[in-house]
User: Fold this.
Amino acid sequence: MSASNDASHNTAPLTIPVTETTSGPNPFITAQQQLDQAARIIGLDPAAHELLRSPLRELHLTMPVKMDSGQTKIFHGFRVQYNDARGPNKGGIRFHPDESIDTVRALAAWMTWKTAVMDIPLGGSKGGVICDPKALSPSELERLSRAYIRQAGRILGPDTDIPAPDVYTSPQIMAWMLDEYCAMHKKNRFGVITGKPIALGGSAGRGDATARGGIFCVREAAEALGLNLSGARAAIQGYGNAGSNAHKLAAELLGMKVIAVSDSKGCIYNPEGFAFPALNAYKKQTGSVAGFPGSAPISNSELLELDVAVLFPAALESVITAQNAPDIRAKIVAELANGPTTPEADTILYNKGVILIPDLLCNAGGVTVSYFEMVQNAYGYYWEEDEVHRRLEKKMKTAFRAVQQTAQSYKVHNRLAAYIVAIQRVAEAMKLRGWV
Ligand code: GLU
Assistant:
């Protein structure tokens, strides 16, 4: 089915051509299908629907970077500003070899819905650079980060578009980017980027905010199901910022036992559970979880199909598909990654009675504390960590309940419910501004 055919009351052709990808589903088509489904249910105004199917603006960047060898290498990247009806565009920057414009468009759309679900006064954007950050030296990484800002800096700003970390970008990268932006604008503007190190205007609690928000959601979902999580098993796909902190907090806050984890180099299993401090130290030392003493190697599909209370997909897009969804045995799927489940898999999981906490809600703790960071930067006054945790918990609970109530009243799965909440809010803002 073509993406344009799927818009029920949208007769105009797509204004943004979708680039077909050869490996796996195209995430932008997925994002448009999800929007179309929700738009149909709420009878969204056709002009609003068409406007929301495409990004408002996008920038394609070409960046020369001096490598340590003395040679210049040319990198390509993107910044997509999807929709800023509700406030400045907000979204991370990814460094990944498989980055593509359609992935960035999808991720920018998801940021728009995410900030709306959380009811924070921001729009949605995303950036990406096609590169293999693991093959770059620290100084090459710094020069690439600065080159990105030299190009994209012209459309960024605390009132227009505020980047943050995402896959393979870090607080250190945010610090270099901030410095480059401040040099371009000849003054300190800490609010232009979030996820900064604390010493440079970062917020306490931002480091584990994505995972913490997800854990709060899991706790709410378990309570609604009458499920006791203490001693229950969890599996985590991906062991970056979100995945590793989910390990720490699932144990610390929920008393769960994490029996399987994976990263890009391997997948490990131990029915007794992994202790976070030891596994985290091992990953820091060796660069991977693979080969952790006392663990058995398993395949990625075995991890996803384990009999656990909670499965945390915390890596990349489209890992739960029509092929493996029938075999998922988790009671709760908590999406710490963006876009890990395809629309076909959503329906399968829903019909099986799996409770899915969608990315727009489950991983929104990151952007929520990013918003707190912007507020603190604007004030020049910084909160204690427990204050950040308290405010985050309140925001997550409110958003969780809005999605839960919408799912019940429309009799739809949680992802559709999250879309309905988000689209209604963005559409209202666009209408009030006179856009549609
Ligand atoms: N990259 C994170 C996300 O996908 C955080 C974005 C932000 O803080 O702006 O939600």
